[in-house]
């Protein structure tokens, strides 16, 4: 029996180095005990522990990129068998290189389920963690938050909070580990308890007032709310103290909104208020001033399509014709897009289409307005609108058309050539695909190359549609 000791419960690199060494030596999965520190993670016999190697053993072998992506999430799962399950898949991949693509395989399905739970927990921490202000010993303000993750995701989320709150001094306390940021460096501390976190601060009253003012009954679905924001997180979020009273008054407010809402010819307002919420969001976006692009643009170009679409496409930004018409993808790139959708047997009337940036960015040249690529600041400023659209539509599959759309959806630079042609996962666990923007096809000077690239684009659309099952 071989015992491998990993330094931390979420250390994928240490597991990977040890697993590669063991697999190269043809060590069977049932002859290995994986443990973290001195705590066993499975229930085999005991043996003299062997630390995980600090670097990969020579003579390693290749595995699909998808396995590495899967493994980085699985090792964070709160499942004692995760290391053994991953190792079993690794050894099988040496004999069956395409096994990772078989979603019907029980082992692959089990690991995908673990990874999905981890991704969801990562999203929950980002969405529901709330900082409260306290004073350090020197009198400077520090913001402290308490969170109880379901999986070992705290370290994986550290970079997110460092980037988002770089100018703040903050601490995140959890039962497993604490993170402390002093404005320049990140450090880890021991586990904490809820009693170590502050109860509240004066800014919470301001936040509660704001939350009450924006609470919209047209967007309220109690079942969906509880699914996305389980009650276990409520005790650490100041605004949720208001939820019971807001829920109590929501029905009357909703009835009033429906009573005064316009009615479609021959159809009444249905019980689903999603469309009303989307219309309210679109009206709100019409007055967007989040970045300077609204000043020269004619209007905000919001998304369009069924608000319950299973398939959502995100482009870069509106063009000249879109800016004038107020609709996405109606110009030359839109015509190319429509042609490709038809070739992929996708009905545009069944999909939701929007853009990462809602205003037309251009450079005037005489009487013409020439497209200019949005900058990172403009993409980030507009990302909030795309996130709201996704939360309302809840597509099963989202397709990023071009690098700008990919950055908006994933929050970082994505290389199309590297990520194209395979299913990816968004922060909320949804499936996503990345392909080129239709305007790229219009810019190709060689007709033969353009034909090849168009065929690839159509194939990408087919893959995304097929992912709907």
State the total count of DSSP E strands.
16
Please state the structural category: alpha/beta
Query: What amount of the residues lies in strands?
Result: 5-15%
Largest β sheet strand count, sense and barrel closure: 5 strands, mixed
Alpha carbon gyration radius: 25 Å
What is the assembly state of the chains in this entry? Answer: single chain
Mean pLDDT comes to 83
Instruction: Report the principal-axis shape.
Output: globular
Low-pLDDT regions: 40-49, 52-59, 203-208, 210-224, 253-259, 261-271
Separate helix tally: 16
Strand order of the largest sheet: 5-6-7-8-9
Residues in helices, as a percent range:
40-55%
Distance between the termini: 43 Å
Describe this structure in words.
With 469 residues, the chain is an alpha/beta fold. The chain has 16 helices and 16 strands. It has helices at residues 12-24, 65-74, 82-95, 106-128, 154-164, 203-214, 222-228, 243-260, 274-285, 320-325, 332-343, 376-393, 403-410, 416-419, 438-443, 447-466, and strands spanning 2-6, 32-36, 39-40, 49-51, 131-135, 141-146, 170-173, 178-181, 186-189, 311-315, 352-355, 362-365, 368-371, 397-401, 424-425, 431-435. Strands 5-6-7-8-9 form a 5-stranded mixed beta sheet, with helices on one face. A 5-stranded mixed beta sheet has the order 11-10-14-16-15, sandwiched between helices. A 4-stranded mixed beta sheet has the order 3-2-1-4, covered by helices on one side. The longest helix is centred in the first third of the chain and has 23 residues, at 106-128. The radius of gyration is 25 Å and the shape is globular.
């Amino acid at each position: 029996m071989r015992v491998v000791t990993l330094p931390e419960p979420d250390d994928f690199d240490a597991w990977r180095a040890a697993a590669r060494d063991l697999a190269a030596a043809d060590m069977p999965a049932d002859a290995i005990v994986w443990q973290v520190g001195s705590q066993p993670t499975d229930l085999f016999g005991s043996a003299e522990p062997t630390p995980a190697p600090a670097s990969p053993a020579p003579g390693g072998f290749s595995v699909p990129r998808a396995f590495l992506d899967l493994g980085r999430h699985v090792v964070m799962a709160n499942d004692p068998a995760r290391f053994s399950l991953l190792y079993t898949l690794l050894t099988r991949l040496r004999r069956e290189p395409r096994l990772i693509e078989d979603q019907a395989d029980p082992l692959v399905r089990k690991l995908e389920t673990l990874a999905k739970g981890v991704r969801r927990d990562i999203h929950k921490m980002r969405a529901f963690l709330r900082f409260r202000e306290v004073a350090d010993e020197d009198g400077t303000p520090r913001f402290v938050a308490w969170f109880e993750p379901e999986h070992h995701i705290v370290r994986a989320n550290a970079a997110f909070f460092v980037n988002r709150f770089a100018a703040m001094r903050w601490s995140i306390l959890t039962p497993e580990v604490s993170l402390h940021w002093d404005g320049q460096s990140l450090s880890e501390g021991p586990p904490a308890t809820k009693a170590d976190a502050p109860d509240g601060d004066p800014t919470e009253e301001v936040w509660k007032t704001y939350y009450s003012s924006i609470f919209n009954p047209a967007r309220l679905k109690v079942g969906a709310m509880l699914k996305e924001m389980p009650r276990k997180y409520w005790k650490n979020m100041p605004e949720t103290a208001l939820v019971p009273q807001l829920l109590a008054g929501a029905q009357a407010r909703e009835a009033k909104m429906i009573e005064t809402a316009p009615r479609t010819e021959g159809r009444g307002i249905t019980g689903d208020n999603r469309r009303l919420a989307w219309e309210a969001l679109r009206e709100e976006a019409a007055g967007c001033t989040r970045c300077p692009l609204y000043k020269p643009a004619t209007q905000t170009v919001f998304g369009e399509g069924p608000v319950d679409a299973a398939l959502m496409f995100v482009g870069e930004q509106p063009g000249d014709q879109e800016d004038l018409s107020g609709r996405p993808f109606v110009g030359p790139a839109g015509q190319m897009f429509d042609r490709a959708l038809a070739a992929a047997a996708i009905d545009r009337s069944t999909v939701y289409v929007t853009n990462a940036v809602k205003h037309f960015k251009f450079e005037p040249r005489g009487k013409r307005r020439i497209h200019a690529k949005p900058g990172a600041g403009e993409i980030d400023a507009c990302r909030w609108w795309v996130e709201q659209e996704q939360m309302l539509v809840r597509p099963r599959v989202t397709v990023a058309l071009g690098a700008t759309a990919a950055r908006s959806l994933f929050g970082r630079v994505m290389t199309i050539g590297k990520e194209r042609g395979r299913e990816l996962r968004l922060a909320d666990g949804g499936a996503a695909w990345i392909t080129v923007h239709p305007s790229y096809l219009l810019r190709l000077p060689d007709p033969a190359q353009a034909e090849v690239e168009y065929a690839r684009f159509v194939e990408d659309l087919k893959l995304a549609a097929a992912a709907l099952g």
